[in-house]
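Let's practice the habit of predicting before peeking. Look at the sequence and jot down your guess about where helices and strands might fall. Then scroll down.
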Amino acid sequence: MQIKRANWNPKEKNIAVERFLSRPAFKEAAEVAAQEVLAEIQSRGDAAVCVYAKAFDGVKLRPQTLRVPDDMFVSARQKVDPAFRRATRTAYRRIMRFAKAGKKKDWSISTDHGGRLGEKFVPYDRVGVYIPGGVAPLASSALMTATLALAAGVPEIVACTPCDSQGNVDPYVLYALQVAGATEVYRVGGIQAIGMMAYGTKRVPKVQKIVGPGGAYVTAAKRQVYGHVALDLVAGPSEIAVLADETADPMHVAMDLLSQAEHGTGDEKALLVTPTVELVPAVEQALHDALAVLKRRALIEKVAARGGILLVTVPDLDSGIALCNRFAPEHLELMVRSPRRVLRGIRSAGAVFMGPWTPESAGDFVAGPSHVLPTGGAAQMFSGLTVDDFLRRTSTVAFSRKDLAETLHVIEAFGRVEGLDAHALAGRIRFEPLRKD
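Done guessing? Here is the structure:
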């Protein structure tokens, strides 16, 4: 495995670093494919979903078999081992606790004259969660999406996840979806799943919002159905940056980098940033040592061959912070002597993991916050999935007579300037009759 190195400072442009940082959130081929498939689903509904399930996943489904039947859930519970059942329950409790703690509550303030201003939060009626299943059955993604919807109070939680060529869905994913509170599960993946949830079909009523991670084709499909449904964020191939100093253990750094490189698309990114020159060769050796014992060695080597693993030396920690902010990674680990001090300078990251005892994998599976996070530099614009993504915010206004009297001149001034007579009169009419002259 060939690992690339680079030196970087904020005052000089480094081609290798710039190439690594450049990662478009959308792929043109995926955009074209998504447009074609979505148009067919919008026009032909269930029939088109089945056609593309056969074309892309090699499974022959009929409209009446799109939904996962009850007996498949029973079978899944029997197949899942006790250790995983315990792990799932533990993760569910921690995710639910975090979601409930962060859930926004209705609030209001008084006006100067006895009125009230505030906000209320209402859960969506029906949401869709997408659970990838290509290279790996992401049972954890079921918990990291549906659990939040359940915590928000969403009554209808629709899940879509791919099945195999025989129509079977991974039992661990099904079990996790049950625990997380999914009310409907469909064995449909890819673009066709997004289209089915966004537009609705005869068999599957449309949802109001779609959340969840996915590859380039799912991401392209989500982008194109925006407006038909609400969306969460851009969540594509996994990525990690580790900002480390001399206190970091090279093997810990190496394994954390590999934990994201092993996801399997080939487009993952793993970046080490350090002012400690001696750490780079030590981490590089640790990467080779660790790779020898991993099952997904071929997938990781594919990432490395595409330049997806980079070890960068910087002049100091402040420069390292600047580079990490430019990268805007999905996951950022601070393996430094004073992580909380460094945290103050971090402005763009999906999630931050601090200290030697916080591997990113804890965030993937059990810490509490959702692991559905922005990728491809989108952390500069988006935040990770939270319980509030499943709530609709409504502002509330209750003026008293004195409130309206005090602000009437403002309403009339803007109504005059903007040429909106009815706006101004809607306020004035409450104090004096309409004059027709």
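How did you do? The chain has three domains: 4-22+236-367, 28-233, 399-437.
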